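Rotation project, supervised by the postdoc (A.L.). Task for the rotation student: set up a whole-complex structure prediction and record inputs and outputs verbatim in this book. Inputs entered:
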Amino acid sequence: LLGDTSYPAGSLVLEAGCGVGAKTITLASRNPGARFVCTDISAESLAKAKEHNLDNVTFQQADIFAMPFPAAMFDHVFVCHVLEHLTDPVAALRKLRPVLKPGGTITVIEGDHGSCYWHPETLASQTVWQCLIRAQARLGGDSLIGRRLFPLLTEAGFADVRVSPRAVYCDASRQDWVDGFVRKTIIAMVEGVKTQSLELGLTDEQTWRQGIDDLNQVADRSDGTFNYMFFKAVAER
Amino acid sequence: LLGDTSYPAGSLVLEAGCGVGAKTITLASRNPGARFVCTDISAESLAKAKEHNLDNVTFQQADIFAMPFPAAMFDHVFVCHVLEHLTDPVAALRKLRPVLKPGGTITVIEGDHGSCYWHPETLASQTVWQCLIRAQARLGGDSLIGRRLFPLLTEAGFADVRVSPRAVYCDASRQDWVDGFVRKTIIAMVEGVKTQSLELGLTDEQTWRQGIDDLNQVADRSDGTFNYMFFKAVAER
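Outputs recorded:
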């Protein structure tokens, strides 16, 4: 996802919504000549992000809807897995645009839970996956946002919006991906909404267990395959 | 889809299920030093394929389940949009494997209708898309076969199976794709099962019209986006 993102030496880059710094580490180490200002609304996340001790990064607590920066301060803006959590992603993008220099670029990366399918696909595994989508929707976000990056950035006033899909495909010949993506990312993410899904009545305990078992089968079986799509957009102020 | 398929001069390549030669034209012209034997079960399709007058291609009527070729005759086999129509794709692959020389490769390309999603997504547009999947299933095929290329080739005895996803993404900045893929391929394909869908009672006339209108909106609107995934597999005998 980040392989084709590079910032020239001397660039000043805003990462809005850095969380615990998962992407910051990669960005900062791959672009040692650039300086990064990384913001998040959560002081707790920022405290963890600071533990990475990155020389070319300054962390700062800030609300994405109220950026405390002067106009045209940054050469580039980077936003990853943030918009999916917001009730009004266009409003956030509109707040980010002015802090970019004219000609500066914004890079936005999001997933799309509606892009996900697998083999073998069972009713129970589809049900627990829909629980994840619906549970996230209850929190006000949109986990199907990847497909909307083009209209969102266009509506927010950005120019020359270019979106590219980034497919993740896993089968038994790619055990590192099966383990790192299917088991430790996807299934872990679904398991994270178990309590909420049962409390909301989105499914019952037995279907839940069956669905998680079935997803694990996709990872464990020699004939299992799994697909997910991320989207990466680059646009100009 | 064919950009990374090339055959060395002197290769003898079997294209099984060439239809009217849509892919044959590209393969034959991009690989002028290779010779192609292209088969199809339909004499009518072959007659159309022959009209392309390709120097390095021999057309021959043949059933994929009864290939009239000696063992180890071909350096490579190419199969595109064929397995989705078969009730027993593994059996077909098992029939193709012996005609390959040891170390020869098979290339298989298929779509996956379950990979398809768009924005804005409406209930009616989802319904007509499901009609396409269900109408094709009634004919004995599997339009969700792309995700299964790895297990199918493995089960048929092929070695070193490598599958890669090929995403098609369209938005208003890519009008050539919107027109060529969304309008002329996807919507045309859905419209092709209208009579069958209504006769089978998969939906009603009003929902059908609304669904087609909604799909056309995806193509027409400035905020529409569309996604589809093809899969390409390469394996050794």
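Student's summary: The mean pLDDT of chain A is 97.
Supervisor addendum: The two ends of chain A are 22 Å apart (CA to CA).
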